[in-house]
Each structure stands twice: as structure tokens, then as C-alpha cells.
Amino acid sequence: MNSEYDVIVLGTGLKECILSGILSVEGRKVLHLDRNNYYGAESASMSPLESLYTLFGETLEGEKYGRGRDWNVDLITKFLMAHGRLTKLLIHSDVTRYLEFKQIEGSYVYKKGGNVYKVPASDKEALASSLMGIFEKRRFRNFLIWAQSLNFQDPKTFQGVDPEKTTMTEVYKKFGLDSNTAAFTGHAIALYLDDGYLEKPCADAIKRIKLYYDSLSSYGKSPYLYPLYGLGEFPQGFARLSAVYGGTYMLDKPVEELVMENGAVVGVKSGGEVAKAKCVICDPSYCSDKVKKVGQVVRAICILKHPVAKAGNSSSFQTIIPANQTDRKSDIYVCLLSNLNQVSAKDFYLGSVSTLVETNNPEAELKIGLDLLSPIEHKFISVKDIFEPTDDGKASKIFISKSYDATSHFETTCDDIVDMYFRITGSKFDFEKIKLNLDEAKKQ
């Protein structure tokens, strides 16, 4: 380990592994360390099932949930948008050769009163949906047709809306959409975390809606994909990519100290040895003095023996419970996976519920989502602090990722990766450049 590197990466979470892989492809000398003896850190998939019980301080007796090795349980469940940035990154970086995906069968939204409705997959489905009344259906259909046909380069398609000036509130008003329709459009289709987008120019919201339906058009049932054997496959895929391009990985390696000179990091001490580096990338757990707590997320991991009737008995689905349907400030996210996704034993299902903590009783805040999944055979509850770096890292050369939020999709994760890449390199992330670098390497 006594050597000099361009980058030392601490922690094998998804964000750290993606950046490690990308920087390796770009020709940087990378050393990657993790104090754990498994890949994934906070975004790991636990297997066998006994390891999940051990992590939560419990003991699994026998094989009442089938063979333990048939389980791959995400500590944080998230789905990919089929045409989203993470999917593009996986394709352009060639990591897809290490992974196999399956489409998520359903995308649902919760409405006050306890019912769950399929998010309309087209303007035709909008007319057939029981999510809205008959007149609202037609208004939503007109909105959907307009949003999907809007061309940002062609003002003739704007229909009196200026994407850079007209707010989303004004757009909803123009099409006569009510607050319930606005809620599921903004939160279950555009995937906003709160309603701040309503008073901003509508361009970003329209792009998000287009992304949802472009992703949906590839498969038909839902816009989401998920890797077989769990999200822990991602960090391992990028670790392999990094190794192919000269990156060095070491698991079960405790980090004793970040070595600083004149306010900037110059190396990492582990096992009494110091590896020198021009910069360090890490998750918040490695730099507690350089992060601030911005909230908490509560998550439930649930073992089930049944599909969910309200969600069409789908073998896999995502349901978003918009905040305004539950008198909360934050949405609640519910996911279900099955042995078809290679994450559970046959005849069992794996559910997850997550949200941002707003009260002194976090588990109770998950009740609506847990009720949707019930009856539950066994559940594991975790409450994790959410951290963000206190500065951009440019002076200290220590670049820290944000903690994973409560969302059940990867869009906010990609925001952080792109932002970190810019802070580290000074360049905007270019998906095509990654592809060109790989193509060039293959020729050599």
C-alpha cells in the first residue's frame, strides 16, 4: 500500500464505486479501501439472510424463510429509470456486461382513503383510470399529450407556455388539473421530493415527465428496472470496471487517519502504512468532522409470504404515497420484490418502506406503507442520520458524498454523483466521453 495514487476512495457504496470506476477509465491511478468485508457499504445487499439478522442484532432460527443463500436483501431499495442517467452510465461504462436486469411490474400511487392506483401509462390509460373523475381524466389526457409533444426547440409546440418562465402551478391551472392530479404528477411521475417545483419554471418538470414516459415506452408495464440479485451487484460491477483499468481494491481495511498537510489531504493511513494521494473520495462515515446532519430517514425491510392485492398482486412494484395524501411534509415510498428478482426464496416476497423522519416516533410514520404490505412475517426497522458535506472539498481535496435519501429511485443519487464529479475534476460529466474512453481502450 506504500505507493502514490491520484485518488484514494473510501467506502464501497454505489456512489464511491461509480466514481472509482469512471476515474479509473479516465486513466487515473485509484486505490479503493473499505472497512467492511463486503461491497456496498450503506447500499449493500445482504446475503445470506442470516447476515441481515446479524446486522440487526437478531438470530435467524432454521430455514423458516427458505434457504438463507437465496436471499439478497438491499439495505436501501432503489429502482432505475429505464432511460435515466444511471442506466445511461451503466451502458456507457459497459458495466451492463456484469449485470442482468428485470423490469419492475407496476408503478402505483396512493390516494387518501387507502386505495392504490396504477400511474397512467399513456393518454389512453388516463381516460380509463379510476384515479380521476371523468372530466379530470380528459383534462389530464390533454396535459399529457401536450407535455409529451412539447419540443423545447420549437415554440410552436408551447401552446402559450414559456418553459423558462411559466411555473408548474400556472401549467396545472392552464389545463384545469386539481390538486390530487398535480400531486401524483409531481411526485409519482416527475418524482419531486416536495412541492417547491410548483413555483419554478416548468421546463425541468416537463423533462422529468418526458423521462418517465420515455422510460415507460421501452417496456410498457412500468418505467423502472432492477438488477437481478440486488443492488449490491452495482458496486461490484464498477469495482470490476475499475480493476480492469488498473484500480486496486482492498476490503476489510480499517482507515486510521486522513493525513493532512497545510489543510489539504495528502494520504490515508491504514494498518500503520500511509498511501499518498492527490485527493480522497469518501462517504460521510469516514469524515464525521466535515459533514452536517440535515435530517433522518426511517426504513423498514419486510419479509412477506404474499403479493399485495391492492397493487394487482404484482411480483414487483413501486408505490409512492404523496405527502399531501397523508398530511405529511414528506412522501412515503413502498417497494416490493420477489424471487423473480433473485432477492428472496421461492414463495416469499421482500418489501421496503421508507420516508424522512418528521416526528419522535419514526416507525409510526411508516404505518400507511406497512399497512399496504401487511400481513408482515418479520420486519427490520432502521433510522439513519442523513449527512451532507459542509464544503465543496476543493480546498481540502476531500470530496464527500451525501447520505442516501428516502426515495425508491436513483434520480437524486445521480444528482450527487454528477455534482461530485464536477467538484473533483472541474469538468461537467459527459456520458459520451466515458463511452469514447472505453472504445479507445478496447482498440489498444
Automatic annotation (TrEMBL):
Protein name: Rab GDP dissociation inhibitor
Reported function: Regulates the GDP/GTP exchange reaction of most RAB proteins by inhibiting the dissociation of GDP from them, and the subsequent binding of GTP.
Cell membrane recorded as keyword: no
Domain of life: Eukaryota
GO biological process, one term: protein transport
PANTHER family: RAB GDP DISSOCIATION INHIBITOR (PTHR11787:SF8), RAB GDP-DISSOCIATION INHIBITOR (PTHR11787)
Entry similarity comment: Belongs to the Rab GDI family.
InterPro entries tied to this protein: FAD/NAD-bd_sf (IPR036188), GDP_dissociation_inhibitor (IPR018203), RabGDI (IPR000806)
Recorded GO CC terms: cytosol
Gene Ontology terms for molecular function: GTPase activator activity; Rab GDP-dissociation inhibitor activity
Protein's organism: Trichoplax adhaerens
Location of this chain's protein in the cell: Cytoplasm
Pfam families in UniProt: GDI (PF00996)
Record keywords, A-Z: Cytoplasm, GTPase activation
